[in-house]
Model the fold of this input.
Amino acid sequence: MQSVKYASPSKYQFGRLGLIVSGRIVGLLSLVLIIAMMLWYMEKGKRGKLPRLRKLAVIDAFPEVVGRATEMGRPVYYLLGEGRMDRPMDMPATVASFAPLQYVAELCAKYDAKLHVPTELAVAYDISYELVRSAYLKAGKIDKFDPTYTVLYVGGYGQTYYVLNSMWRERVAGTFIIGSLYHQAILFAEVGARAGALQIGGTDTTHNIPFLVSACDYGIIGEEIYALSAYLSKDPIPTGQLAGQDIGKILAVILILGGTLLLLAGFDIRRLLTM
Amino acid sequence: MSENVYKNQLPFAVLFIVGVFVILTYFFQVPPEISAMAGDLTTFGAVIASFGILLGTLALVRYHVVLMYRKKKNWQFSILTMIVLAATLLTGLIGSSRGKDFLWIYNYLNIPINATLYSTTAFFITSAAYRTFKLRTFDSAIMMTVAVLMILSWMTLGNLAFPATIEIGDWILKIPNSAGFRGMTIGVALGLLGIGTRAILGRYREVLTA
Done:
């Protein structure tokens, strides 16, 4: 039997608790605390005690965008950006944008608005196709779902060229630009604005948020993209997640303020935080 | 096996086991072999996503075949797409993806097309800035003032005309910009944690279920 070789202590420093990797104890404690709070709020929500959510103006704008498109007889575009699901930093935003996609598809089916979801990557295409199709089925309007248009797979960079051209040609009436977006954020938002579309844009890629906020009528800033599911569904699970996240924020604020004060008072707490 | 088991329960069970395993190997001391296994599992994500390429190619072919069959508007372009798709596929299959012909397609067609798209971004940014930077509200006035200061700070001509903008620009980048950026990063990280927790615990069923 092959013996298992452990890393040498000099290469792999042991933390104070022995079992935990050095420098990650505070991270682990914070993770456990935040997850515990999320689960507690989820369970509380299930018993009917939902935490109160601050009003997010963008939520009321969803039906407004779709309604405007119906009145104008022009399409609504839902753009996931690259829609990547193979990179850890992009996948959560792509997954988070599926909940609003489902909601938009339900609205489009209800109000008879023409929906177009061009996707760049195949996995996102597959999930989007099923979500949109089921929304049309649920509304009893599957005849309005066009398999060659409603959710379209256009691979690679061709998708960006296609979207820019198509948005302009069809004079898009409303756009939802939600997901993990990079340089496409400004391209899509700017063409949509020039075409006269009412736009909602949001991403978690921090350096692209200013572009969407500038060019869109309603912005979803950073983490709000992860909160959309709770706002749209009023379900105890995503609402509990949101309340748990808030505990994490309070913890972060306490650590920042407390740490600053202690450092100013001459206590070096950096070793404590990195143990 | 019922449909619910292999479409929902089994994937969530795999997700839970892999998720918890990767988190534990990050925080706890484990033998290097186990740590390497966790690394391999995260790589599997990209491998599994690659299977999507086949699915995507099939979806693309189906779409263009339907367009050609029904002779929809601009269906002739679908023939061109199919020819290009087949030519690229065959070049890669016959001469490998590192072959001379395939690399020629990549270097002289794919890269210039991508570079063209990237380079147009500058014009879109300028156009968006022109439309956005209007003194309509107090907020937009702050945004415009900061933008002008930053432009002057980064431009050679701006530095020459107003040397003080260099320090002002540096201060804006290091202090208010960093503070806002870090606040947003903390919020996004907590959001990622929330989505991850729900997915691992099988509580993201409104989307990730069949």
Observations:
- Residues 96-121 of chain B form one domain.
- Chain B touches chain A through 62 residues (CB under 8 Å).
- The radius of gyration of chain B is 26 Å.
